[in-house]
Every structure is written in C-alpha cells, then in structure tokens.
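Work Package 3 committed the consortium to producing structural models of liganded targets before the mid-term review. Because experimental data for this complex are still outstanding, the team generated a predictive model from sequence and the ligand definition alone, so that downstream docking and mutagenesis planning could proceed in parallel. The input record is reproduced below exactly as it was submitted to the modelling pipeline, together with the SMILES string for magnesium ion.
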Amino acid sequence: MADFLDSTRPATLERAFLIGVQTNEMADGEGGELLLELTELVENLRLTITRTTLVNLRQPTPSLLLGSGKAAELAEQAKADGADVIVFDEALSPAQQRNWEELSGLAVIDRQEVILEIFSDRARTREAVLQVALARMEYSLPRLTRAWTHLSRQRGKGSMGGEGETQLENDRRTVRDRITHLKAELASVVKQRGVQRQKRQRVPIPTAAIVGYTNAGKSTLLNALTGAHVLAADKLFATLDPTTRQLVLRGNQKLLVTDTVGFIRRLPHGLVEAFKATLEEVVVADFLIHVLDVTNPNVAQHHATTLAVLAELGAADKTIITVFNKTDAADAAMLRRARQLAPEALFLSAHTRAGLDTLETRALELIADAFGFTELLVPPSRYDVVARLHASGHIHEQELTDDGIRIQGRFPAAQSAFFAPFVVPPAK
Ligand SMILES: Nc1nc2c(ncn2[C@@H]2O[C@H](COP(=O)(O)OP(=O)(O)OP(=O)(O)O)[C@@H](O)[C@H]2O)c(=O)[nH]1
Ligand SMILES: [Mg+2]
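The resulting structure, written out as tokens with the ligand in place, is given here.
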C-alpha cells in the first residue's frame, strides 16, 4: 500500500477556522445559514472552532476561490488564531485546496470532506464502511499531491516535496485499484441484501421507509413505533445503515419500516452515489414517512433538500406521509410555520408519543389503498382458515352472517391455493 495510506505520523487537527461564502446567486442569508450548519458539522468532529468568517464573493477565482488579497488576509488571521485547519463551506477544486495549503501552511479542507469524515466515523456495517471508503477514495484521487491525505489526521508524506511523477503515478494506481476492489466488494454485499429482501417479499408485507434531514428524529421515531433499539443520538448522521423493523398495526396489519441515513444539503456527490445502495430501501418502499424537525429554523430547506434527494434517487412520486416531529419542544409560531409549509402534514412527538396513533391510522389507510382487500366467506366449521388469515395475512373487517364468517382481508400470495376456495368473486 502506498505511503499516503499508512497511518504513520498521526497528527491531530484540533482548531478549525471556518470560511463561508455568500455569492450573488444565493438567496439572502443563505451563506450564513450554510455556515451555521457547517459549524455544527465541524463540532461533530470534536474540533474547536476559532472563528467563522462569511465572505461576500462576487467572482470566484480559479486559484484560491477568493481574491488573493482577501485570501492572504484570512490565512494570516487563521494562523494568528492558532488554527491548524481551515474549513471551507464551498467546495474547493484540488488546485485551490493545494494553493490554500501552500499559502497558509495549514491543512485545508471543504464541507465535502467534513461530511466524508463524519460518515467515516459513523459507518458501522460492512456496507456502510465500504461505501464511505469508496467515496473517500474517489474524493482523494485528484488530490494526491496535497499535504493532508484526508482528515483522518494523518500527514500524507507520499508525494509531497517533489518526489516526482513516478511516486504520484504509483499512488494513483493504488487508489484506482482500491476503487475497483471496493466496487466489486460492495456489489456483492448489495446483492446479498437484495436476496434477503426477496425472501421478505414472498409474503407481501407492506413496507415504509423513514426519510428526512439528519437529526430530524427518524431513528427515535422508529424506536417509538417498534420499541426497536436503533442508535438515536444528538449527532448528525447517527445512522448510516438501514435498519428494518416489523411493526404490527391495529387489526394485526404488519408493516416493515426501514430507518435510513439522514439527508443533508450539499451532500458530496460521491456520497450520494455511494449511498444509493443503502437508500435502495427508499426506492422499493410502498410509501415514505418524511420526518421533519418542527423546531429547526431551517425546516423549509430541510423539506426541500429531502424532496430533491428523493428525486435524485428516482423516488419522487412515492406516496409520502409528512410528519413534523418534536412538537413537545415547539412553540405556536413553529407549528404555524410548519402548517404553512406542508398543510397536509401530521404533527407528533417521538419522545412523548403524542400523535403516533394518527400516523398509524394514516399508514393503515395507505396500505388499504395500495393493497386492496379480498372478500372471503368462511364456514363457521373452518375457524382454522380465520386463524391462519389472522396469523399470516390481514383481517380488515370480520362479520358473522347466516352464511358464515364474512371477511375483508388480505393473504400472502404464496398461500392463495389454501385461501382460494373461500374467496368471494367480486360483484360485476
Ligand atoms: N424534543 C424532542 N427531541 C427529539 C424527538 N425525537 C427525537 N429527538 C431528538 O433529536 C435528536 C436526533 O434524533 P435521531 O433519532 O438520532 O435523529 P435522526 O433523524 O435519526 O438523525 P440521523 O440518523 O443523524 O439522520 C436526538 O437528540 C433525539 O433525542 C422529539 O419528539 N422531541
Ligand atoms: Mg438516525
């Protein structure tokens, strides 16, 4: 393995100097909001922030993004603050990054790399680890000549200091080989998961995926719904792997609910690609539960971002139940704002469980719409049929009549031979 991947000479980055940008194309205040969000992301990496600066940018420059006078001034300020890393909210080209490192003598990274680092910190399962490694390799490929290989606090030493083209070529080849290898391994993991899902689908249990901006409370909601113990923490991207739980709703209606990774503005493109596999659950779900944090001042952007990512995943026309979470912590103005944003949305609190029953009702309605019911007539002597339907299917309504037990319900396709004799043909 090439030098730059070795964990030699670990050096911990501790103090970050943040630079945000407001361009003419951005809405008023957008640069500031993004910078605030970057602050939160950087704090998640346990770095101390020495200063945040928002720069008005009229015309980006190819060499340093900012004008050279402004760049020199900020580099000086970062050094005077005792910072050891400059973090840009705006994406830097490999050349801009290198130039900033030369100008400041500090490590220089951008939002994408911060997100990569958080993802890398949080990845737990084989698939998540592979996906993050792949995204990181793809990010670093054009950046091999910089001083810092990535933010995993290792000094890259491989190709710095004019060791020549050969070393750089070797490094590039190593990274490309790693990428090829990771893709192959990932494909086999994804295939394995597909097999598992097919097994599940033999019994037609409806599926829902919980989606939404990071920190909205998706994992907490799944916990509240199922009693599952999915990691829920006040950290961005606490969840990186899909977790599926079976829920039993009223009337013994089963529903598989999958928790997913949180969405975020400006998700590094490499990560969107890499995480498509994880978010496959979203694409195949019968419907989505879009969770929003009603207390977050940026809830409108979060709403828009999630819809945009869904569109990118090809899941734009899925049925969505929009829910505003954290009503326990909301004031009247927040609730009003939310109602304007999404008038049809439900309000709930995963913490207090208020509103969970309404969500359940809505889910049951959707399932009934999507799956439809079959009418069955079962003789009273065949209560075993009713019991079996109860265990493996779903009974919506049941009524004892003179002819027998009339049922509106649903059974797994795999058992249609068993139930067929009792099905009442639909009236013409
Ligand atoms: N006040 C309040 N806080 C909540 C509620 N639901 C979740 N939270 C808090 O919000 C934070 C984030 O919750 P998570 O469930 O981890 O959020 P998530 O959407 O799964 O986040 P990622 O997995 O990072 O995308 C945690 O500190 C929760 O305790 C709620 O109903 N009320
Ligand atoms: Mg989560």
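Reviewers should note the following from the model. Residues 372-422 form one domain. These observations will guide the Year 2 experiments.
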